[in-house]
Amino acid sequence: MWVAPLCVVGAALSLFVLAASIAQRHKLPALALAAAAPFGLPWLAGPVPLVRGVLALVFFVTMIRVIDLVRLREPWSAGRRIAHTLSFIDTRLLRREPPRIDLGGLAAGLAWGGLALIAIVAVRNLAPPCAAVPRLLRLAGGVVFAYAAIDAGYAMVRAGYRAAGFVTPPLHVWPLASLSIGELWGMRWARPVGHWLRTTCFVPLARRGHPVLGALLGFFASGFGHAYPVLVALGPAMGAMMLGYFVVQGFAVIAEPRLGVATWPRAARRVWTVVIMVATSPLFVEPALRVVLEDGSFQCPTSAAGE
Fold it and tell me: Strands 95-96, 166-167: parallel, antiparallel or unpaired by DSSP?
């Protein structure tokens, strides 16, 4: 069962190390080698959708690190470039401190992981996709699972870096305090990812006088990075749903200045943010649940749908 995934991981590691080694002098070949890993290898990782999806996500993030190397002008050594490529967190955002065991991070990771496990078990047993139960139950369980799983993973990653002598940037900054969709994505949610999208997608176009196009490019890049692993795991229907979530979010952010959201009363701004996020959340939650639960069927059977 694990032979194919392990072979895929080994092949991807070789491609990424080679790409990092030549990125300073041979940019296009480095990009080609890095792209071959996420766009070719996960499809060969065996029959388990979750394994294919996770590998596609990890390889996609690693490809982004090679894109960093191609864009950077710093004279990094080959070892430094390889370390950056294989780091889950952008190494430019890390801060050195004496190594220590982050007991708080480990405890947080276990707590969030336990909550994610409870949520996914509840969804699987109480709210399968075609069950005659309120959709709200499945959605609520999916939202809890997605948030808790993300925080659990990052807490464990943070603890690992801390043990190696590095401090990682915070993942979120009180997302529930957001008063707009733009504030949520631009300032509070997934800060390391937002930093990369801002510097790579938004800023270059904004400097040329195209901030709207830069924002849309950022959301499309983020959407593709989430949708592609779903595509590899489950196919185009679920992948398109995931991509649609980020496209809608991007247009909501662009619409906010035109609607004058910043001038609304705080209560109205908070209601706007909550309503948009809740209304669009099924586009994200449903594909994520089906990848984890390995349920790729998009349509319910006629008999079950009619119950």
Answer: antiparallel
